[in-house]
Every structure is written in structure tokens, then in C-alpha cells.
Amino acid sequence: MRIAEIGEFGLISKIATLIDEKGDRQSTARRDLLLGIGDDAAAWKSPGGIELITTDILVEGVHFDFSYTGWHDLGWKAIAINISDISSMGGKPQYALVSLALPGRREVGDILEMYAGMLDLANACGIAIAGGNISASEKVVINITLTGLAGREMMTRSSARPGEQVAVFGYPGLSAAGRKVLSQFISTDADALQLFKKAHLHPNPAFTAGPLLAGLGVKTAIDISDGLISDLTHICEASHLSATLRLDDLPVHPSLTRYFGRESVKMVLAGGEDYELLITAGRDVMEHVSQSLNPPPVIIGEITDGTPGSISLLDGAGNPVHIDFSGWDHYKHPD
Fold first, then answer.
1. Assigned fold of 42-150
2. Which of 3, 57, 260, 284 is an S-S bond match for 143, by CB 3.0 to 4.6 Å?
3. 135-150 per-position pLDDT tens digit
4. Which fold has domain 165-321?
5. Please, are residues 269 and 324 in contact by the beta-carbon 8 Å criterion?
6. pTM for this prediction
């Protein structure tokens, strides 16, 4: 069986099963582990609270293209995508380790410019870059490991309950627009180009939102990296529930509609790499969230009983809608 036959998430499932079956259940580290594979970050108990750790990798030609990606933006994004994972767990980011695989032909100045991008965001979020590793490679590969600290409560994928509202922050789909505009040389006005480029190359994760949401009573969250539908599916699968989304309630940015028309809804639902938070909560908690955060999240649907992982789409009249798409899977999107 090849990896391409089962896909990224099928492979993750098999690895998680093997670790669960063969790992030493009696070790102190295993006993203190609260969450392992299957959420946006791992978590374990410590005297200071709940420790979090996450890791993400960026590979040249898979996650970024130097024809339109600068080194400073690359460094910024490498840190940003990990901050988003820590925030989605309700944590505050702390320490980063940076592992690089680099071709010898690359300029030292470019690597330092990439680190400058990392440091600009790390400094703004109170993150210390504590070390890392460098190896030779044919392509540029960046792997960041980021730790975080949550309070007494953290948010997970597996805590959704029937009847909870589903809400999303920001404007999903803008990163996908940026990727299309930059890679396909689509002409836009200057403001739209800046909006799309910033969303794709220079995401700005709300690093303070996670702890605030957890403190307000939100139990369930995920960051939108694979696509809104795909990541909501992750929540529903982990919580053994389903969900209903109302297409008319989706936050679609006017510039997305202007330049991509009917395709804009697909981009909102499946574009990926938005690094916005998707949450579920009861009505009272969601009302507190809406009053406490500016801008507030947009309520787009509900969690329901049903086939785990099933997502139903409804139009403005409440009629079922079928859209042929899926979120990102590294092994189901061949080059």
C-alpha cells in the first residue's frame, strides 16, 4: 500500500495507532501526556500548567514558491503557522526551535533575511527562538517546533456538543486567492493585490485570541490550515458528530467575490492556509465571545447529531447544496 493510496490523514491515523499500541504506557512522560497525535498541538501536564508543543514544516515546491515568495515573508509565515496551532489550543506561545535543510548554493544573506522575518513575528508575540539544527538538502525545508503554555483549560477538537454554534474568525479564502493571483499572474487592483498577498505570504495569527477564548468558556477550536470544511470535518470526526453550514452566512470578502465570482465560495470552504480560528460553543458562550472580541466571529452553522465527520451545506432557503471539493491533503494533490 502506497502513501498516495491512503492520503495524509490515513497515514497519520496508522502512525497514531502504532504509537498507541506499541508505546510505553507506564513511562512518566506517557502518564503526563494529555493529548498526543490528532489535535493542533500535543499537551502534557507540568507544574506550571498545561504545556503545549506543535511542529510544522514548509517544503520548497510544495508549500512555497520562490518565484513570488520572499525570504522575509517565508520566515514570518514559518513562525505564524505554528503560532496559529498553539492559539487554537488556548495557549500562549513560548519557545521555538528552527530546523533547516538548505542547499549549499543559497546565499547566507537570504537565510539571515528569513530569520529576520521569524524574529519580527516572534518578538511581537513574546517568543524566544531557542535553537535548532541545519542540514544539507537539494531544496529549502523549514521545520519549526513551538512550545506554548495554556492555563487550566485548553481547547481541543474532540469537545464539540450537539446544538453548539459553529463560528469562524476573519475571511477564509483570501490566502487561496493570494496563491492564485501570484502563481497565475491574475490582474487585480492594487488594494486587492495587497490584501491577497498579505493573506497568503504574511498571515497574522491572533496569538492572544486563544487564551481569551478558552477563558470565556470555549472548549472546541481548530485553526484553518487545510480548509474550513476539512478542518470542521476534523472537529466532527474527533467529537463523533456532524455539522450543518449555511452558505449565505459565510464571511466572503467583497474582493474575493469581485475577482473570483462563484468560485469564491469554494475558496472560502476549501482554500486552506488561512490560519484563522474555527470554534464551536453554546449560544451563551458564543454571545460572550462576540461581545469580547473585535471583530467578533461569524456564526455559520451548528453542530448536529449524525454520521461522524459529515458536513451538510444549506442554501438561503434551507435546501441542501452539493459542492464538489475537498480540503488539502498532501498526498491527494499531486504536482
1. 60s Ribosomal Protein L30; Chain: A; (3.30.1330)
2. 57
3. 888 999 999 999 999 9
4. Phosphoribosyl-aminoimidazole Synthetase; Chain A, domain 2 (3.90.650)
5. no
6. 0.87
